[in-house]
Amino acid sequence: MSNRLTRRDMLRLSAGIAGTAALAACAPAPAGGDAMAGDSAAASDADGERTQIRFASFDWFANVPGIQWAEYHQDEAFPRYYEEHPEVEILWEPHGDGWSTKVLTNMAAGTAPDVMSTWPPIINTWAEKGQLLDLQPLVDQDVPDADDIFLAAGWDQCWDQITQIRMAMVTNIDVTSVYYSKPAFDELGVAYPEQDWSVDDCAATACALTKKNDDGEITRWGGQLRPSYVLGYFYYVEAWGGMVRDDETLMECMLGEEEALAAFEWIRHNMWDLNCLAQRNQVNASGIPNTWTGVLPADIVAFAERSADQFFDLADQMEEGSWDINHIAAGPVDRVCMGAPDQWCVYKGVADRGNHDDVWNWVKWIGAGEWYQDNVARRSGRLPGLASSADKWPGFLREIDGRLEPVQLEVIVDQLKTGEARGPQLFRFQSVAEELLVPAMEAIYVEGSEPVSILVDISQQVTEAQHATLERMG
User: Fold this and answer.
1) Hey, which residues does 326 pair with through a beta bridge?
2) Is the pLDDT of residue 36 over 50?
3) pLDDT tens for each residue of 239-289
4) Which of the 8 DSSP states describes residue 325?
5) How many Å separate Cα 146 from the centre of its chain?
C-alpha cells in the first residue's frame, strides 16, 4: 500500500489545520455545510450532474474599456476551462456591498462561496479565524516551482505569518508609481524625473513645478503622494530605514522611532510648510469630477503617485506622448513602493462539500495557468502575478491601445522584479491599529493640527491595544 497522500487527504488535512488555528471567538463552519452549500456545490451525483464551483469576484474588476469582468468569465474563461474540465460548472457570484463582512458571516455559517476574490488585510482576518484552506500542500505537489514562477511581491503576501498557511493564489499586483505630465515640466523648464531620483530631488522638483497666481494662491501643486496615509505611507518609512511594526509578533508598533518620524516629517513639511505636495483636501476642493485619474489632465498637479489603473483614462484625457511613468523617489536608505495583490482564496468548507479536487484544479488554472494569467492583462489591464505573463503585460496593453506606445510601462514590471514593490506592513490586528492611527494621521496630514511627534505616544498605544486584543481572545 502506498503511503503517499492523495489530493483529497491533503485538502482535508489543510482544512483541519486551518480550523485548529481558528480563534475561539469565531464559530466554525458546520462539518458538512448546510443545505445551501450542499445543493450548490456538491460533487457529481449518480445521475452524472456536473460538479458546481461557486466563484465570487467583482463585476468592476476590469480596467480595459468595454470589458465587464463577469461577462468575460461567463463568455470566455469558463467555456475555455470547460474544454479541459467538462465535468464542472462554475457559478459566478458577484461580491456586493459589505462583502468582506458578509463573507466572514457566511463562512461561520458554512455557506460561503468555494473560491473568493479578496486582498490583504481582509484575507489575513479570514485566515486567522481559521476559515481558509491551506493551499501549501497542494502547491507543493502540483506547482513545485511556485517560488520561481510567481512574482515575489504578490506570492509572498499569500503566506500568512500568524497561521503559517498559504492563504491564496495571486490574481494580479497593484503597483504605485509616479505619473507625470510632460507639458507641466516643459512649461517651466524642469527636467523629467530620472529613474534614480531621490526624495530630495522629488521635493525640489515639486517646489519648482508649483504655480501661483498674482494673489499668491496656488493654482497647481508640484506633486501629490498617494492619498492613503495609513497603508500608503509605509513605503516612505521603509525608505528611511524604519519599520511600521516588528516582524516577529506583528504587534509592536515602531512608528514612533527615529527613522519613521523622519520619513513622516519629510512628508508633512512638503505638504504643509512648503505645500509643494498637495494636501488631500486641496485636491478634493478643486472641483474636478475624478481626483484619482483626473489630476494630471486637469493640471491640478504636475506629478502624482497612483496605482497601475490609470492608463486608459490618461490615454483618453491627455495627448499621446504627453505623460509618462517613473519610479517612486528613493529615500536615504532604500527605494520602496506599494505592491498590493488581489488574491483568490478557498473556503475551508470545500473539504467536506465533496468538490475539493475540482475547486483546486480551477484555482490552479486561474493562478498558475498562462492562458488565464495572460488574460488578467488582456481583459482587465491589470498586472498578472505569474512572472511570464507579467513580462508580456506592457505589450498586451499597447495592443489594446496604441496610444500607450510612448509610455514606459516597463517601469512597473521593473518595480516588481527588483523588489521595490512590497506589501504594506500589516499589524496582527490591523483594524485595532487603525482605530488609533487613522485619527493621528488625519490630524497630521489632513488637518495639519499636530506634529509628527504625536506618533511616539500613539505607537505605544497601538502596541498596548494589540496585546490587549490578543489577551481578550485567550
Assistant:
1) 178
2) no
3) 999 999 999 999 999 999 999 999 999 999 999 999 999 999 999 999 999
4) E
5) 20
End-to-end Cα spacing for the chain: 43
* Confidence band of 48 (pLDDT split at 50, 70, 90): low
Q: CB within 8 A of 142, min separation 6: which ones?
A: 360, 364
Burial of residue 107 (number of CB atoms within 10 Å: 0-12, 13-18, 19+): buried
Domain range summary for the chain, segments of one domain joined by +: 7-173+340-415, 177-338+422-472
User: What pLDDT digit, counting tens, does each position of 372-431 carry?
Assistant: 999 999 999 999 999 999 999 999 999 999 999 999 999 999 999 999 999 999 999 999
- Rounded to 10 degrees, the C-alpha dihedral 73/74/76/78 comes to 80
Instruction: DSSP letter for 253, please.
Output: B
* Residue that is written with C-alpha cell 526624495 in the block: 199
Query: How far is the C-alpha of 411 from the C-alpha of 389, rounded, in Å?
Result: 16
Cα separation, 41 vs 33, in Å, equals 10
Nearest CA-CA partner of 455 in 254, 250, 245: 254
Same fold, 7-173+340-415 and 177-338+422-472: yes
The CATH T-level fold of domain 177-338+422-472 is D-Maltodextrin-Binding Protein; domain 2 (3.40.190)
CATH 3.20.20.70 fits 7-173+340-415, yes or no: no
- Distance (Å) of CA 92 to CA 8, 350, 427: 24, 17, 33
> Is 301:286 a contact under the CB 8 Å cutoff?
no
H-state helical runs in 387-453: 387-400, 410-417, 430-441
CB 397 within 8 A of CB 409: yes
Tell me how crowded residue 152 is: count the other CB atoms within 10 A of its CB. 17
pLDDT digits (tens, 9 = 90+) for 441-462: 999 999 999 999 999 999 999 9
